[in-house]
Design goal:
It comes from Mycena venus. The chain is α/β, with parallel strands linked by helices and 430 residues long. It contains 16 helices and 16 strands. The longest helix has 18 residues.
Length: 430
């Protein structure tokens, strides 16, 4: 076990992989490593090239037996390669969710998803530390994947993540991991080398330790298969392409801290570690309620709103504008709850998919003088969507409508104007 404290380990891992997200990998290097660990050329050509960066040690989607309509969770999703491959297997009605501790990685993955027109709730990427409670509801996931990530967690983090995996899996749900495991107890000079830790070697545990972690979390039986892959491929691939940065799973330049000791260039990775595929499942639990909406907070799948202040408009002001024929568009961001009544003439853009439609939304309403957003009480979805639109205008340096939020939402609107048919409509098909 490393003598470094957990916070130091996590910060170094985050810093290094964030640097990888920003710099990317040389294409030939990334392809060489990906093929060495089980990705076919066809698979690599089917996903954005920036989604695979030579960071994995296997291909968990091959043996995950994913089915149409399933919910898949990838822990440490990086640029998104395994999520994109999973999405192609689970189809449009399935959900593929990637979690990563690096905001830079999440940004890269979301950009890659946009290139393939993949959006929440079908494909989602969230920033999340795997050492904290996952933003996923219990008994909501059919299959959990992870590729060369668990070894990067400190010991307490390893204990925690397996308990969390057990919690979020549906009864009978599968866990398919590819990870680096130690062949024997690692000597101190490797465990205490932070460069080796962030390179997936220093934090590796042995098979019997890994099995015990799974068992303690509730997984009764687990299967470990040595892939027999040559871990030195990371080094050889980097040498073949001199332009390749040392940013593979097992060949990362640890630049996160000046206190990190240099990597031993003569280390034979195969002497100390091996790439394993681990498979287990959550036992059946008859009578347990299954959750069909995995995300604890649906808005976590989108960028956080940067705009901090929104202008508000009172019902009286809006009613006057509408009756005077002002240039105003009213946007109802509710979903199924819209049927209870709405502002007459309002346009329905459910909040859960609004962010995906920002470009077309702007094209439709950019000529208006004012755009008014509302939801039930205008304290959640309404302000959030207004914020996303305001951010869109500012990010793209665009002139556009005045963006405001209706005070009190539809509840106050109906209270004040119930029965006034020019202002309130209700029970029409959504």
């Amino acid at each position: 076990m490393s003598h470094y404290d957990d916070a130091f380990i996590l910060q170094n891992v985050k810093d290094v992989y964030s640097a990888v997200a920003n710099s990317g990998s040389a294409p030939e290097y990334a392809v060489t490593v990906a093929q060495a660990f089980g990705y076919s050329i066809e698979q690599l050509e089917s996903v954005p090239k920036d989604s695979h960066m030579g960071l994995g040690c296997g291909n968990p989607t091959v043996t995950a037996t994913l089915k149409p309509g399933e919910t898949v969770l990838d822990l440490g999703s990086g640029g998104g390669i395994d999520i994109f491959l999973a999405a192609s297997k689970i189809g449009p009605h399935g959900r593929a969710i990637g979690l990563d501790m690096s905001s830079e990685m999440v940004k890269r993955a979301r950009q890659n998803a946009t290139k393939r027109d993949l959006y929440p709730p079908h494909v989602s990427f969230l920033e999340c530390s795997l050492t904290e409670a996952l933003p996923i509801l219990s008994n909501s996931v059919d299959c959990v994947l992870s590729n060369c990530v668990i070894n990067l967690l400190p010991q307490s983090g390893k204990n925690h993540i397996f308990r969390e995996i057990f919690r979020v899996l549906k009864p009978g749900g599968r866990l398919v991991l590819d990870d680096i495991l130690a062949k024997e107890e690692l000597p101190r000079h490797i465990r205490d080398d932070m460069t080796q830790y962030v390179s997936c070697i220093g934090g590796a545990v042995q098979v019997h330790e890994y099995r015990e972690l799974l068992h303690s979390a509730g997984f009764d039986e687990s299967m470990f298969v040595d892939s027999l892959a040559d871990l030195n491929i990371y080094i050889m691939a980097a040498e073949l392409e001199s332009a390749a940065p040392l940013n593979s799973c097992c060949k990362i330049a640890a630049t996160a801290s000046t206190t990190v000791p240099p990597q031993n260039p003569g280390l034979n990775l195969n002497q100390w570690a091996a790439s394993y595929q681990i498979y287990t499942r959550k036992p059946d639990q008859p009578g347990v309620d299954i959750c069909d909406t995995p995300l604890e907070r649906w808005w976590d799948a989108f960028p956080a709103v940067q705009a901090t202040k929104f202008a508000k408009i009172s019902p009286t002001e809006l009613a006057t504008m509408l009756r005077n024929g002002a240039s105003v568009a009213v946007i109802d961001v509710r979903g199924n709850d819209r049927k209870g009544g709405h502002v007459a003439g309002s346009h329905n853009f459910p909040a859960q998919t609004f962010y995906n439609q920002l470009t077309s939304f702007h094209a439709q309403f950019n000529a208006m003088s004012t755009v008014v957003f509302y939801c039930s009480e205008s304290v959640g979805r309404g302000p959030r969507c207004a914020g996303w639109y305001q951010d869109y205008l500012e990010t793209n340096v665009m002139s556009g409508p005045n963006v405001v939020v209706l005070e009190g939402g539809i509840k106050r609107w109906i209270t004040e104007y119930s029965g006034e048919k020019d202002l309130v409509e209700g029970n029409r098909p959504v």
